[in-house]
Amino acid sequence: MENDTETRVAFEHPEFKVRVVDALKNDRVRKNFRSAMDGLMRRRLDMFDDAEALENLRTQSMAIRANSLSRLPEMLEKLEAKCIENGIQVHWAETTEQANDIVLKIAQQHDAKSIVKGKSMVSEEMGMNHYLEEQGIECLESDLGEFILQLAEEPPSHIVAPAIHKDRYQVAKLFKEKFPDIPYSDDIDDLTKNARTILRDKFYSAPIGLSGVNFAVAETGTICLVENEGNGRMSTTVPPVHIAVTGIEKVVEMLEDVPPLLSILTRSATGQPITTYFNMITSPRKDGEKDGPKEVHLVLLDNGRSKIYGDPELIATLRCIRCGACMNHCPVYVRVGGHAYGTVYPGPIGTVLEPQKEKGLQAHGELTQASSLCGACGEVCPVRIPLPKLINRLRYEGNRKDESSVTGAGSRRKTSEAMIWKGWAKAHSSPGMYRFGTNAASKMRGLIPNKLGAWTRVRSAPKLAEKSLHQLAKEEGIDHE
Amino acid sequence: MEKQSPESIYFFGTCLIDLMYPQAGMSAMQLIQREGVRVIFPQDQTCCGQPAWNSGYRDEARQVAEKQLALFDLDIPIVVPSGSCAGMMKHHYPELFEGTVLEEKANAVAGRVWELTEFLVDVLNIQLDDLGEPVDVAIHTSCSARREMGVADKIEQLVGQLENVTVLAQEYKAECCGFGGTFAVKQPEISAAMVEDKTAAIRDTGAQVLVSQDAGCLMNISGAFEYQGDGPESQHIANFLWERSHGK
Ligand code: SF4
């Protein structure tokens, strides 16, 4: 699209490398990410001035999530029973196709031609907008960031701040182009106000509102929704039908579990002590009540999650509360941005989650290579997901020779690479061979080319020392036993 | 954490130091010897196995790591002049050998591993006299020393003991330099973007010398400085400390 070539990364390109290179050379995108991530990191830090309290809260939050996941089937049954008791209709979807179909059927029952949406990453996972639009149902994004992206025809580049790759001048330009009647302004308050005016009308006419879910409480059958703009409240209260879509992992056991999670979520995500809106939805409109939807549906999507649940190590993936802190702190994400990942969830959590979804390591296993394993993500994750450890595990799953329960295990194994590691292991497990090799290498170091593929594109070739440490230690008479 | 100085220690030099920075290995051993501790350098050591481990080749990593486990029979500390290799041996050996006959041995070895700067400060309580000329330095702490080993403060403490050395503040100090072992080769474009930013941040400090506790980061950063034709001299922390406190 000509309106925004400056920040358009080749997100549709099938090759990861092409997307990465395209993103890296886009200075404006890089600048936008750097400054936005710096801001988010700073704001998070300001929220946690007591390091010990933070670590305690992380431990508590991890325990809450781990507890509900350890009994996931039981929690989900309880949630379903409670919701039904409260008058919420519960639907199960194993695949994204099934989830889309469920939403479509509900829309058809109500003769709905449009749906107004609050922010939902699961609906992105489903590719719902596209699916419904093909069936003649229009989806209107009401979250400001998502609204911008819908205008620009781009996917989200961040799970909390979906349009973060754009700066306000680009948004202003986009608004001018799409709404020529509204006077140009690149002031953030004006832009928000304009978007609100455009959106407000849609709320009153939409027959269905759709939202995501932050926590689903099994004990009470409550859907919790965290947001800042009030569009979540509008989408879930104004239209006569509300559909909430969620991954099955979002369930928590008790109402008591919510406050610590909410507190660490908002502080980790946007550096806010609490968001402007926090919605708790426990039933449709009851007799005698004046507002609220007449019908509430909860769609629970699996999409590979129960398989993740079955692995004692990988299950930690499901603890995620989608705060985005791991991507804000990731040195890879901050440089390539969300679109380069080419997946719904970018950054470290995307790197771990995407290859474990339905399509497995074949589809997105390459992402596991896009990490220096620096550990910055694991250090900030509010529910202590050991992200680097899981990335390492998935690299192993991708390369392993034998079968495993992980979808696509072994699918990334390359014979040539496996041969290299075999040779490496042989050389390094025989001390004599190793010493012979290193001596020879040192002696012939003059012959080492000063161009070494990718390494020397930005660096000089490494230089071998004249004598190895083994030799020096021997010559200096250091004891060897 | 403070312990009495042991009589002797094992020194595990790491394959990168062996081939590229052997002087750093020698300096580290000399620093420890100067404190009256006997240093044993098992000649049969090769590599901790980390390159294969991080690349997802666990069988190959195990094959190599197994040989290292056999080198440390005495119940004495194992000192490693690298945060990432120490991290491998301390934190990943137990994982790598879990459920195998070597599990117990791996746990025992892991429990005796010390990263060099941590060992110098917490165990030897080393006191350094600075014999060098005044110099401005920048410190790069490797991600594994910082996060996996949690010893980022040790290198600062050691350099802080040197009277004539000024440590300069650096932007994005805690950010990864982009090395990441095979990451630099598998994702060269991203790695390049990272090391370019890192070298710029270090150059901006105006430091004359860059020190680090990890040879991998040094190789990455100094390689980029050299290619750019502009940047401070780079030294492994062991080398730097030995030269300053011993005279060249
Ligand atoms: S993995 Fe952790 S840090 Fe990343 S989005 Fe999920 S909860 Fe947040």
UniProtKB/TrEMBL annotation, chain A:
UniProt-listed PROSITE patterns: 4FE4S_FER_1 (PS00198), 4FE4S_FER_2 (PS51379)
Biological process according to GO: lactate metabolic process
Ranges where the 4Fe-4S ferredoxin-type domain occurs: 310-339
InterPro entries referenced in this protein's UniProt entry, alphabetically: 4Fe4S_Fe-S-bd, 4Fe4S_Fe_S_CS, FTHF_cligase-like_sf, Helical_ferredxn, LUD_dom, LutB/LldF, LutB_C, NagB/RpiA_transferase-like
Zinc-finger keyword on record: no
UniProt keyword list: 4Fe-4S, Electron transport, Iron, Iron-sulfur, Metal-binding, Repeat, Transport
GO molecular-function terms, A-Z: 4 iron, 4 sulfur cluster binding; metal ion binding
Keyword Transport part of the UniProt annotation: yes
Matching PANTHER family: LACTATE UTILIZATION PROTEIN B
Family matches, as NCBIfam families: LutB/LldF family L-lactate oxidation iron-sulfur protein
Name by which UniProt lists this protein: Predicted L-lactate dehydrogenase, Iron-sulfur cluster-binding subunit YkgF
Lineage: Bacteria, Pseudomonadati, Pseudomonadota, Gammaproteobacteria, Thiotrichales
From TrEMBL, chain B:
GO molecular function: oxidoreductase activity
Recorded GO CC terms: cytosol
Residue ranges of every copy of the Cysteine-rich domain listed in the record: 10-90, 137-221
Entries under InterPro entries matching the protein: Cys_rich_dom
Signal peptide range in chain numbering: none
PANTHER family (alphabetical): LACTATE UTILIZATION PROTEIN A, UNCHARACTERIZED PROTEIN YKGE
Protein name: Predicted L-lactate dehydrogenase, Fe-S oxidoreductase subunit YkgE
Source species of the chain: uncultured Thiotrichaceae bacterium
